[in-house]
């Protein structure tokens, strides 16, 4: 059982992004980071951006994407991050946006030109049924056109939903039920075949309703492996608080200073436990030490993991620094 004696080291970084803010104009049901308008309007400052990028470069990754939350809610802070990237020699693949902020005025156009001047070449613009619940599609269309005029490439993510949304009034928002009514009762079940979805964060709650849930015991029976995902650096993120998010496990956090060396059990007891013993180890620990009892059924092991971590953070009164930020757990539970 070699895996059970391994220590978790976040070493070479392969591909990832910077989260400049969790605050967002939307509250998408699939959001891995549970972003929403209710988050504090905190943003990444220049010093944190510099430290994060220098660390990412040192660990072998030469370019990142930039996302949120909605980065354009604080355009000057976004520009600071872009300029910092240029200063430290970090490539920026694209900035992600949901287009909600773009209302075709001069200010919006000026922001696009300022981004281009700061070195940005590509804007990823979100297109999905989840975003359409909060953002009129005309904003997406107008932003695409403005990017073309400003000389910015557009990465529509994902373009395959455009025909669906073009059948609806572009000047208003549309809830998922409208799309189900239009395209059939299995519309929601087919979404993951058309769109990359990671079943963590809010997506774990939402797709539990779509695909069904099973008991905690069934989840534990089906998952007897350590969580090796924690060491995966193919899609990492570093947030505005200077925390590295291991794997795609939102709500878990590692200080940037601790990257590149074995994580200490004293500082990261839960991460080390998950890496050695997986969800079964966390469940047993939370049951025996912090009175955790499952109160519902779960989509998968990550849904159960989130529920345990929510209990530790919000109900058991624990203060594990690796469970961060606290707002994530408060927002996760508020299913839209
Ligand atoms: S998926 Fe993007 S637009 Fe939607 S809530 Fe999350 S950060 Fe905001
Ligand atoms: S169970 Fe927890 S630690 Fe393991 S992959 Fe899922 S969210 Fe990450």
UniProtKB/TrEMBL annotation:
Keyword Iron: yes
Record-annotated Radical SAM core domain positions: 23-150
Ligase among keywords: no
Key words of the record: Iron, Iron-sulfur, Metal-binding, S-adenosyl-L-methionine
Record-level Gene Ontology MF annotations: catalytic activity; iron-sulfur cluster binding; metal ion binding
Listed cofactors: [4Fe-4S] cluster
Protein name: Radical SAM core domain-containing protein
Organism: Desulfacinum hydrothermale DSM 13146
Lineage of the organism: Bacteria, Pseudomonadati, Thermodesulfobacteriota, Syntrophobacteria, Syntrophobacterales
């Amino acid at each position: 059982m070699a895996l059970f004696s391994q220590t978790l080291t976040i070493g070479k970084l392969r591909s990832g992004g910077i989260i400049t803010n969790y605050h967002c104009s939307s509250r998408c049901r699939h959001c891995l980071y549970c972003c929403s308008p209710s988050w504090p309007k905190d943003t990444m400052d220049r010093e944190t951006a510099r430290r994060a990028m220098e660390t990412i470069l040192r660990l072998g990754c030469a370019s990142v994407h930039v996302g949120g939350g909605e980065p354009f809610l604080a355009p000057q802070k976004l520009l600071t991050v872009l300029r910092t990237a240029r200063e430290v020699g970090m490539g920026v693949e694209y900035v992600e946006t949901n287009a909600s902020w773009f209302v075709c005025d001069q200010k919006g156009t000026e922001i696009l030109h300022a981004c281009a001047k700061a070195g940005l070449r590509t804007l990823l613009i979100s297109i999905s049924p989840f975003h359409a619940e909060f953002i009129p599609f005309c904003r997406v269309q107008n932003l695409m056109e403005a990017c073309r005029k400003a000389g910015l490439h557009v990465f529509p993510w994902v373009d395959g939903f455009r025909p669906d949304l073009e059948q609806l009034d572009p000047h208003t928002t549309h809830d998922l039920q409208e799309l189900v009514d239009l395209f059939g009762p299995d519309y929601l079940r087919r979404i993951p075949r058309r769109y990359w979805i990671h079943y963590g964060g809010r997506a774990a709650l939402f797709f539990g309703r779509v695909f069904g849930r099973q008991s905690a015991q069934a989840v534990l029976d089906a998952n007897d492996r350590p969580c090796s995902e924690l060491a995966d650096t193919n899609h990492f993120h570093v947030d505005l608080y200077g925390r590295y998010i291991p794997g795609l496990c939102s709500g878990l956090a590692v200080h940037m200073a601790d990257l590149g060396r074995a994580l200490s059990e004293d500082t990261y007891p839960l991460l080390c436990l998950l890496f050695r013993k997986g969800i079964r180890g966390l469940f047993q620990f939370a049951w025996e030490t912090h009175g955790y009892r499952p109160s519902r059924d779960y989509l998968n092991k990550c849904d159960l993991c989130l529920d345990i971590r929510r209990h530790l953070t919000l109900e058991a009164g624990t203060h594990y620094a690796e469970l961060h930020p606290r707002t994530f757990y408060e927002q996760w539970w508020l299913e839209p």
